[in-house]
Every structure is written in structure tokens, then in C-alpha cells.
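Researcher: Quick test of sequence recovery. C-alpha cells follow.
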């Protein structure tokens, strides 16, 4: 952590003095809502963050190719050498993997058969390496694009929350959906120090649609209660020293009210059994389906996080002792069914052209022969898949050795291994957000870098995805 002298330098750069403890930021009502968590009512308040003081923003050129982002977190860390960086090892790789060269890429047709047809749309970055090999730390790292144990790491927002606040001025008054939607992502990192209006709105999709958007007493009775609430609050809002505080509650209520008895909400979050079956009839497939419908609704959602866990395959990765258990084939089928249907529907609707899909785990798994438990352990080498928003697919960026143990070709202009911070910068740039921006609205006034060390050009976007 930076010392006192460094803190004073930051303060000087921002034109602020350090001040006494009682003059520093304290827990506001918005901060209280943020801590209270995300639900139908609390996940996205309509109020906007005050303009942040931005300094040291470099005059970079952003790609500005995407309107939306779907970020798929493969938690548990999938084996790169059995999926998107396939390596065939005699005596280890089983025949059901069905390795086949398609368009110059070696592909596990037996694991991901449907995605084989979508290879022309996929750019697979194989020169990615993780910073650490611990699940919780790694999963948090890829969601916030920095070391969770580093400076401001404990208050760092999710990438989706940053996108929400940076794109807040682009929301239309009639758009009622949250900017940041998290599907099957109960453990998604929250909005950090940002207000709860930018927190992930966490939903587990079901055929019944979004829960709690109708009242048990019926619409008419609910409307009566709503009017009564407003009548009781009116003196506090307009003629009380607590007016500003009550106004915050009003924002809270209005955001929730916008989702209730709303046919647009119903269409976006509800789906039929037939639609679910087309996406694989799994939780992951349902999340992909809802993501597509939410983007079609065009109600202000800009970042969707979907989590597919279960990739921590230390034992029986090929399912030899338990073919129906969680293994590379059974979980691969869930991914294959859901993602292939999502890609096809996004293309059919025209949304693929302005939606960036990013998919990765927290790290990879040990290459070479299996362990004595017939599995693979944690390993730093990994992959990241990109598609949509003009990304040129049908290729790999970077390469690894014959075992998948080390990067042999970086495949991009910075000529080094790619890190989560670079992927974060790529997402921001694709959305037209200057990744070098520094916000001075953090609770300590020391400056929050959208991407760490951006003033020293340590990390940057993978522009080669578009060239």
C-alpha cells in the first residue's frame, strides 16, 4: 500500500487537502443501500453519481465498437488444454474428445460440437495468464480487473458497475431495466464504492419471469397503497429537513415501481419451456436466453454477467468413473448448447454487431498427463474468448507450446502475456470508454484508476481482435 507521502502526492494532484477525519467521506444513505445488497428494489436506484473529477486522462483512441457486453465467467477454471487450447496427448486424451482441425484450429468436436459451427465468429486469445491460483481471489480479479488485495481493491467496483456509471448519461428516461444485470451470478462482485444504482441486479432466470413484480393483493390494491405512501411522504419530501433523505427513498421506490406490472419486463424475463430446450434446458442456457431477450428489449441494460460454475475438475475430468457426473463432457455440453444458441439468436436479431461477448475463467489447469485422481489442478495458463462487435473470428491470438504449459507467441503489439487488466481495458475501449481515466470520487480521495497504472501505460486493449 502506498505510504503517507504518496497519499499526499495524490491529494496534491487532485487539488485536495487531506483534511481532518470528520471532514472525510462518511456512510451516506446511498452507501447504506449499497451495503444492503441487490434485490428487485435495491439493485439499481435511478439517482446518478455526482460528476467525478477526472485527471490524468490520456488522449487515447477507443475502439467504440460495442453498445453492450455479455461477460461469461466460467468459474472453477476450465481446462484450456481440453477446450479452447486443445492439446492431444497420446495415452491421456480420450477418443470421445474427437479432435479435429477446423479452419486451421484444432477443436474438441466431442466436447463442443455446436460451437464448431460458430468458430468463424470466435477469436480465442491463448496468451492469457493468471496472476494467482486461488479461486476466490482469481474470480474477483477478473471481475474488477485488478488485485483484490491491492490499493482500493476492497472497494473496487465490478467492471459492469464502472460501465454503468460511465454510461449513465446515455440512459433514456423511459428505460427501466438495470444497467448491470447478473444472471446465475449470486457471487458477482458488487458496485464497490459506487452507489447501489450501479450494483449488479442479480436474477436466477426461470419460466415464471422476474419474481416480486406483482403484489399478492393485486394491481388495484397495490396502486392504492402506492398512492397512500406518496401522500404520507409528501410533507417529508417537500417541507422537511429530511427532504433530501426521503428523496433518496423516492428514487429507490421509483426504480422498483418501474419493473412492476410492466409487460416489457415480463417479455424479457419470461420464457417458454420450448425456448429453454432450444438453449439446452439448463440454468446456463436459460441465462443466455434471458440475456438475449433483455438486449432485444433495449431498456438500458449495458452489461450482463453470466456465471457457469463447476469447472474445478481435480478428479475424473473425463468422467470415466462417473460419466453422468460433472466432467468436461457434461459441463461442456451445457456451455455448447447455451452459447451456440445465444450466438445464433444475436446474429439473427442483428444484436451481434454491437454486442461484445467475453468469456473466461479465473485461470487454467495443469497440462500434460492427468493426476493420480484423473484430474487437472490449478495452472496459470488460460484463455479468453471474444466474439461480436466487429471482432474478427475464426482464429487464435497467441499460442502455447505443444503441452499448453507456456506461451510461445504473444500475438499482440505489447509483446507479452495478456493479463486480466488488459481484458478490462479491451472491454472499456470497445464501449468507447477511455480506459486511462482516473476518478476522484473514491472514499479516500486517492484516485481510482479504471485500469490500474494507466498513467504509465502498463496495460491496454487487445486491438488485434479487430484487425
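Model:
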Amino acid at each position: 500500500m502506498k505510504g503517507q507521502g504518496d497519499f499526499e502526492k495524490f491529494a496534491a494532484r487532485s487539488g485536495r487537502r487531506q483534511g481532518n477525519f470528520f471532514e472525510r467521506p462518511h456512510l451516506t444513505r446511498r452507501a447504506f443501500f449499497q451495503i444492503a445488497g441487490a434485490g428487485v428494489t435495491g439493485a439499481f436506484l435511478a439517482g446518478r453519481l455526482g460528476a467525478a473529477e477526472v485527471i490524468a486522462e490520456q488522449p487515447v483512441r477507443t475502439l467504440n465498437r460495442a453498445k453492450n457486453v455479455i461477460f461469461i465467467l466460467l468459474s472453477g477454471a476450465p481446462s484450456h488444454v481440453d477446450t479452447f487450447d486443445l492439446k492431444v496427448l497420446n495415452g491421456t486424451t480420450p477418443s470421445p474428445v474427437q479432435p479435429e482441425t477446423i479452419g486451421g484450429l484444432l477443436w474438441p468436436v466431442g466436447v463442443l460440437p455446436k460451437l464448431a459451427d460458430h468458430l468463424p465468429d470466435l477469436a480465442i486469445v491463448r496468451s492469457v495468464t493468471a496472476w494467482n491460483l486461488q479461486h476466490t481471489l482469481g474470480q474477483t480479479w477478473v471481475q474488477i480487473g485488478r488485485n483484490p488485495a491491492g490499493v482500493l481493491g476492497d472497494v473496487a467496483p465490478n467492471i459492469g458497475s464502472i460501465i454503468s456509471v460511465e454510461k449513465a448519461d446515455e440512459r433514456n428516461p423511459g428505460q427501466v431495466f438495470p444497467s448491470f444485470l447478473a444472471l446465475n451470478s449470486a457471487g458477482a462482485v458488487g458496485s464497490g464504492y459506487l452507489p447501489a444504482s450501479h450494483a449488479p441486479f442479480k436474477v436466477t432466470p426461470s419460466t415464471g419471469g422476474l419474481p416480486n413484480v406483482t403484489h399478492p393483493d393485486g394491481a388495484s390494491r397495490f396502486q392504492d397503497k402506492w398512492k397512500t405512501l406518496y401522500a404520507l411522504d409528501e410533507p417529508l419530501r417537500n417541507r422537511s429537513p429530511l427532504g433530501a433523505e426521503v428523496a433518496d427513498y423516492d428514487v429507490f421506490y421509483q426504480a422498483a415501481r418501474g419493473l412492476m406490472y410492466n409487460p416489457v419486463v415480463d417479455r424479457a424475463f419470461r420464457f417458454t419451456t420450448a425456448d429453454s430446450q432450444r438453449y439446452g434446458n439448463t440454468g446456463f442456457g436459460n441465462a443466455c436466453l434471458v440475456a438475449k431477450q433483455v438486449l432485444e428489449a433495449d431498456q438500458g441494460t449495458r452489461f450482463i454477467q453470466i456465471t457457469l460454475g463447476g469447472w474445478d475438475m481435480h478428479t475424473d475430468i473425463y468422467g470415466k468413473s462417473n460419466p453422468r457426473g460433472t466432467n468436461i463432457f457434461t459441463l461442456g455440453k451445457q456451455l455448447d448448447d447455451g452459447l451456440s444458441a445465444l450466438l445464433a439468436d444475436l446474429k439473427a436479431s442483428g444484436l451481434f454487431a454491437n454486442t461484445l461477448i467475453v468469456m473466461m475463467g479465473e485461470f487454467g489447469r495443469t497440462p500434460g498427463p492427468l493426476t493420480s485422481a484423473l484430474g487437472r489442478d490449478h495452472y496459470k495458463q488460460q484463455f479468453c474468448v471474444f466474439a461480436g462487435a466487429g471482432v474478427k473470428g475464426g482464429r487464435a491470438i497467441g499460442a502455447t507450446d505443444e503441452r499448453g504449459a507456456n506461451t510461445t507467441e504473444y500475438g499482440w503489439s505489447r509483446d507479452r502475456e495478456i493479463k486480466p487488466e488488459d481484458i478490462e481495458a479491451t472491454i472499456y475501449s470497445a464501449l468507447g470508454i477511455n480506459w486511462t481515466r482516473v476518478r476522484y470520487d473514491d472514499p479516500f480521495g486517492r484516485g481510482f484508476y479504471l485500469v490500474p497504472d494507466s498513467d504509465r501505460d502498463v496495460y491496454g486493449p487487445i486491438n488485434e481482435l479487430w484487425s
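Residues 214-258 form one domain.
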